[in-house]
Amino acid sequence: MDIKTVGVVGAGQMGNGIAHVFALAGFDVTMTDISPEALTASVDKIAANLDRQVTREKMTQAERDAAMSRITTTGTLTDLAKLDLVIEAATEKEAVKHAIFAELLPHLGEQTILTSNTSSISITRLASQTDRPERFMGFHFMNPVPVMQLVELIRGIATDNATYRSLEAVVEKLGKTSASAEDFPAFIVNRILMPMINEAIYTLYEGVGSVQSIDTSLKLGANHPMGPLELADFIGLDTCLAIMNVLHDGLADTKYRPCPLLTKYVEAGWLGRKTDRGFYDYRGETPVPTR
Ligand SMILES: CC(=O)CC(=O)SCCNC(=O)CCNC(=O)[C@H](O)C(C)(C)COP(=O)(O)OP(=O)(O)OC[C@H]1O[C@@H](n2cnc3c(N)ncnc32)[C@H](O)[C@@H]1OP(=O)(O)O
Ligand SMILES: NC(=O)C1=CN([C@@H]2O[C@H](COP(=O)(O)OP(=O)(O)OC[C@H]3O[C@@H](n4cnc5c(N)ncnc54)[C@H](OP(=O)(O)O)[C@@H]3O)[C@@H](O)[C@H]2O)C=CC1
Questions:
Q1: pTM reported for the whole predicted model
Q2: pLDDT-based confidence at 1, cuts 50/70/90?
Q3: Known catalytic membership, residue 140
Q4: What are the domain boundaries of the chain?
Q5: Which one of 39, 132, 147, 228 has the fewest beta carbons within 10 angstroms of its own beta carbon?
Q6: Which of 8, 14, 105 to mutate to test the pocket of ligand 2 (most atoms within 8 A of CB)?
Q7: For domain 191-289, is the CATH number 1.10.1040.10?
Q8: Active-site entry in 42, 120, 140, 178
């Protein structure tokens, strides 16, 4: 299927990055969110990111304006129903995703490909709740979407080849690289990355190092662009905890036990950058470690 029109559900950090790269690649994008404020903030963020790319001469003003003109927003989820491709990028909670699909499905175009940007949840289980498991896939972008090269493609048990090939072609058109992952908890990137982040939080919890020493160690000792605690704040601690819970429940191995300190931060509502506080406090001019 030749995909031209794309719907994005959820205008958080991933939704806005996804809309950004699709609009820039020439797709018409419609975004929706339950929060009108999130939609406005998302469009502002895309505009600011594109402006920076113009300033740094990565694109022309005309390309920036054309990309912005391809993005529309709506508060009505069913406005996305007749598009070629829908990408669900709402909060990492299975019940939220099911509710979105349940509302959308009665209106969804027969040929529309439905995908989820989930970081960890079973694609087969999500697909089984829809009327189109053969045209349902995991379509996993990395954060920040405009910068990261990889997109994981995850087939559910029933996904057909035509759907897989359509999404492979879309990734190519975005100028990104796809990697195929089987449908097991957290797929490839997060199966490996998230236990590393969780272990960094245990290292903090057990007093082996401070926030600063743990992040400095991995940045300068392993050449990671961000320390694991800085990265956890960047991803969102609620998302990190949700992924660890999927790994723990899905693989039934205690090595995936979420660190109690991670749970405590989430319970406090300290979710990282998006709430201005996590392992660092972002309310001042420079981030200050909270432990
Ligand atoms: C949880 C999941 O399900 C899966 C995941 O996504 S896991 C998370 C994966 N992501 C990572 O591991 C990110 C690790 N961090 C990094 O790679 C880097 O720190 C970074 C790319 C985010 C920033 O790099 P940096 O060198 O410190 O910053 P900086 O020089 O300011 O930025 C580099 C470029 O990225 C752009 N950029 C940085 N942050 C951005 C953002 N949030 N949105 C858009 N563009 C951004 C900058 O504009 C700059 O672009 P140009 O090269 O065109 O000028
Ligand atoms: N953060 C990351 O690094 C990555 C995340 N992902 C995945 O992408 C998805 C989104 O994550 P992320 O962008 O970080 O999360 P955010 O918390 O930044 O954004 C989620 C957005 O979805 C909105 N939302 C919640 N319920 C609904 C609904 N029923 N309909 C429409 N919108 C809704 C939220 O609104 P409100 O705030 O009002 O609840 C919020 O604006 C998750 O599945 C996550 O696992 C994938 C790759 C990387």
A1: 0.97
A2: confident
A3: yes
A4: 5-182, 191-289
A5: 147
A6: 14
A7: yes
A8: 140
**Ligand 1 nearest atom to the CA of residue 45, by list position:** 43
Which of 21, 141, 147, 197 has most ligand 1 atoms within 8 Å of its beta carbon, as the pocket-test mutant?
Answer: 147
Find the ligand nearest to 140 CA. Answer: 2
Q: Is 190 a catalytic residue?
A: yes
Catalytic one among 119, 120, 178, 198?
119
- Residue 16 appears among annotated catalytic residues: no
Prediction ipTM score: 0.95
Q: Which ligand 1 atom sits nearest the alpha carbon of residue 58?
A: 53
Q: Quick: pLDDT tens for 37-59.
A: 999 999 999 999 999 999 999 99
CATH fold for the domain made of 5-182: Rossmann fold (3.40.50)
Q: 238 C-alpha vs ligand 2 centroid, how far in Å?
A: 10
- For residue 224, the CA-to-ligand 1 centroid distance in Å is 12
Q: Which amino acid, one-letter code, is at 92?
A: E
For this structure, is 88 an active site residue?
no
pLDDT in tens, 62-116: 999 999 999 999 999 999 999 999 999 999 999 999 999 999 999 999 999 999 9
91 Cα nearest atom in ligand 2: 20
